[in-house]
């Protein structure tokens, strides 16, 4: 059963490392969290609070050790590796701190990779979609440049275009501005907000920057593996 | 296929191009391996074919001959009985195969037999003036015998013809007896002698044979040896020379005659050929192992270098199987490119050998070539080796934890 408007639903989610060993450590302690379609949320917290682990679990890159994680209404904890991969491909987009573009591919090729991965070829429609997406993030002139030829901010914009080109309902951004100067950081953040506004894509942005967090619709704070606050407010700036 | 593997192919090629120098080095390494294997295989095949051609150029693949006369003990020793006896071996005389035309027809009907020829052979003397030489007298029907050893092609002077009173003589024997085409000389066997005229000089490729052999018509040999209508042996040529051992064993079990394949008659040569084949196989295995290890080590390094990219691809939704195929394809591409280059290199080496390795007569030592089937076999082998070499790195890449790989 798919919950209307509910994108992510965590119930009692736990994550431990080194399970069964003397040094077993639980890093997420029974989290409950719901993210609705079209939300723009920030995940904040000090280093070591479990933000990256939570993001990896939400991104189906790691499995929880307990609890439930429903994505688009479907329980994911019982899915096998292949199903998780396909679900990740269909439902999620990623933006990482260090952009993580493939250096051997041009900006356009990086953005068409998801289509290539799905269909084995890039048809004219996919090519046009990728070109349009790069134009939308202000890189119409840099289609054929390799990541090494682009500035940090431009690289991150390519990464955002790549994350959005498949029109996933949720984009997970792990400190997307953490490696950028203030001007580039503002530019990238503004771009994400614009994409959210134009496309209705939900964003969960992990950030250390309270200034950027304040510009989100919702702020979830994680401390020592537990959600200590979950505030919704009108974004500033 | 290319479309179905479009993602994998594109990523594999880009990964290879990204590490150009690394890829180039390993392709050259594979090419060197392929070239060595192809060249050594062609060289050994050529050498063996040449050796076989020379060896079998003057002898039958299988020979059926009348058994030697033997002396059987008057009574076999009983159990526990000690016998003191001395058996004098019998002197040997030419003996004929009984009803050899019927046996010849029977042998000719066997599918593995290409040709059969009757022969009367015996020792004798060749006399001309003051000169006397021991000869090996060989009585044959020229047309039939030509199908066994291509005797006509070995004529170096005169014309291949064996009419009554005519002989074809080994080149060195002719020199020893001072004979030229058209000259006459006397053949003596026991108490019988016959004057014959030389129609041709032949080069059998082996000096010892050239110094002794005299070919005469079968009927002349029969009368010289005292075996009217007889044949001391039947010579067989087979479609496949390597079937000689099996056929000889089968015939020996069926017939009351001595049957000998060319391998038995040339045991040392066969051992040498086998040793060569084993050496070639060892070289091929060692080179293939080196090639596999080379490709594998480069790809293992590539997996380590590309961990982050693999993590990104996995995060974007690339399946483990897709990542695995990316690296298998890299192995295949490296193997295939190395094969193409290696085969070209082998062809160049063979051309160099043919051009520069020449005997004292200025002719190539022997002809070698790279048969397309061998080139294809080696190239396919290297490509498959490339894929096999990539299996472990590919599995390693596919097993990478994307979350960890991205963090690196």
* CATH architecture verdict of the domain at 38-63 and 94-232 in chain A: 3-Layer(aba) Sandwich
CATH class of the domain at 38-63 and 94-232 in chain A: Alpha Beta
Radius of gyration of chain B: 32 Å
Q: Tell me the fraction of residues in β-strands of chain A, as a range.
A: 25-35%
Structural write-up:
The complex is a heterodimer of chains A (about 240) and B (about 400). Chain A has helices at about 50-60, 80-90, 105-120, 125-135, 150-165, 180-200, 210-215, and strands spanning about 5-15, 25-35, 40-45, 65-70, 75, 90-95, 170-175, 200-205, 220-225, 225-230. In chain A, strand 1 (about 5-15) and strand 2 form a beta hairpin. The longest helix of chain A is centred in the C-terminal third of the chain and has 18 residues, at about 180-200. In chain A, helix 3 packs antiparallel against helix 4, helix 3 (about 105-120) packs parallel to helix 5 and helix 5 runs parallel beside helix 6. Chain A has a domain at about 40-65 and about 95-230: Rossmann fold (3-Layer(aba) Sandwich). Chain A contains 7 helices and 10 strands. Chain B is α+β, with helices and mostly antiparallel strands. Chain B folds into 2 domains: about 5-55 and about 270-405, no CATH class; about 100-255, no CATH class. In chain B, a hairpin with a 2-residue loop joins strand 6 and strand 7 (about 190-200). In chain B, helix 2 packs antiparallel against helix 10 (about 265-305) and helix 10 (about 265-305) runs parallel beside helix 13 (about 370-400). The radius of gyration of chain B is 32 Å and the shape is elongated. The two termini of chain B are about 35 Å apart. The mean pLDDT of chain B is about 85. Classes of the chains: A alpha/beta (about 240), B alpha+beta (about 400). At the A-B interface, helix 2 and helix 3 of A face helix 1, helix 11 and helix 14 of B.
């Amino acid at each position: 059963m798919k919950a209307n408007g509910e994108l992510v639903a965590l119930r009692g989610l736990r994550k431990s490392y080194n399970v069964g060993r003397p040094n077993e450590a639980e890093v997420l302690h029974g989290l409950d969290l719901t993210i609705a379609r079209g939300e723009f949320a920030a995940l904040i917290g000090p280093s070591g609070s479990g933000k990256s682990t939570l993001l990896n679990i939400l991104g189906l890159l790691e499995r929880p050790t307990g609890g439930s994680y429903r994505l688009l209404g479907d329980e994911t904890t019982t899915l096998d590796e292949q199903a998780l991969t396909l679900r990740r491909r269909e439902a999620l987009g990623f933006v990482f701190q260090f952009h993580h573009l493939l250096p051997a591919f041009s900006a356009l090729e990086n953005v068409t990779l998801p289509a290539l991965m799905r269909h084995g070829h890039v048809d004219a429609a996919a090519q046009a979609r990728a070109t349009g997406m790069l134009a939308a993030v202000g890189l119409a002139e840099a289609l054929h440049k390799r990541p090494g030829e682009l500035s940090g901010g431009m690289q991150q914009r390519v990464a955002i275009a790549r994350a959005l080109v498949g029109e996933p309902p949720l984009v997970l951004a792990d400190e997307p501005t953490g490696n950028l100067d203030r001007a580039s950081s503002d530019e990238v953040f503004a771009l994400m907000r614009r994409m959210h506004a134009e496309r209705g894509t939900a964003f969960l942005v992990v950030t250390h920057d309270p200034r950027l967090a304040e510009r989100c619709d919702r702020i979830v704070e994680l401390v020592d593996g537990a959600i200590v606050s979950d505030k919704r407010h009108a974004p500033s700036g | 296929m290319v479309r179905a593997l479009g993602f994998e192919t594109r990523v594999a090629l880009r990964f290879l191009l990204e590490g150009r120098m690394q890829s180039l080095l390993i392709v050259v390494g594979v090419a060197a391996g392929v070239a060595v294997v192809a060249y050594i295989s062609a060289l050994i095949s050529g050498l063996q074919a040449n050796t076989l051609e020379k060896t079998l150029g003057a002898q039958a693949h299988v020979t059926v001959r009348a058994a030697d006369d033997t002396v059987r003990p008057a009574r076999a020793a009983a159990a526990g009985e000690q016998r003191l006896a001395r058996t004098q071996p019998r002197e040997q005389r030419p003996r004929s195969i009984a009803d050899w035309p019927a046996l010849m027809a029977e042998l000719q009907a066997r599918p593995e037999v290409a040709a059969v020829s009757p022969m009367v052979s015996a020792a004798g003397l060749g006399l001309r003036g003051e000169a006397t030489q021991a000869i090996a007298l060989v009585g044959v029907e020229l047309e039939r015998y030509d199908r066994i050893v291509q005797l006509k092609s070995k004529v170096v002077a005169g014309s291949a013809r064996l009419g009554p009173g005519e002989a074809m003589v080994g080149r060195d024997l002719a020199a020893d007896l001072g004979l030229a085409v058209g000259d006459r000389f006397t053949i003596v066997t026991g108490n019988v002698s016959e004057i014959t005229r030389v129609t041709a000089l032949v080069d059998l490729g082996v000096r010892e044979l050239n110094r002794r052999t005299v070919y005469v018509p079968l009927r002349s040999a029969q009368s010289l040896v005292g075996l009217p209508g007889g044949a001391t042996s039947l010579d067989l040529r087979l479609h496949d020379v390597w079937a000689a051992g099996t056929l000889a064993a089968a015939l020996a079990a069926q017939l009351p005659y001595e049957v000998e394949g060319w391998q038995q008659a040339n045991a040392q040569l066969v051992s040498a050929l086998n040793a060569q084949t084993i050496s070639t196989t060892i070289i091929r295995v060692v080179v293939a192992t080196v090639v596999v290890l080379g490709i594998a080590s480069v790809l293992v390094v590539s997996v380590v270098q590309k961990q982050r990219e693999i993590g990104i691809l996995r995060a974007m939704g690339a399946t483990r199987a897709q990542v695995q195929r990316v690296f298998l394809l890299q192995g295949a591409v490296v193997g295939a490119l190395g094969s193409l280059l290696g085969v070209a290199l082998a062809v160049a080496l063979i051309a160099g050998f043919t051009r520069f390795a020449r005997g004292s007569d200025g002719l190539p030592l022997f002809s070698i070539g790279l048969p397309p089937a061998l080139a294809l076999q080696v190239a396919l082998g290297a490509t498959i080796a490339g894929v096999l070499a990539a299996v472990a790195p590919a599995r390693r890449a596919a097993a990478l934890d994307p979350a960890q790989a991205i963090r690196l």
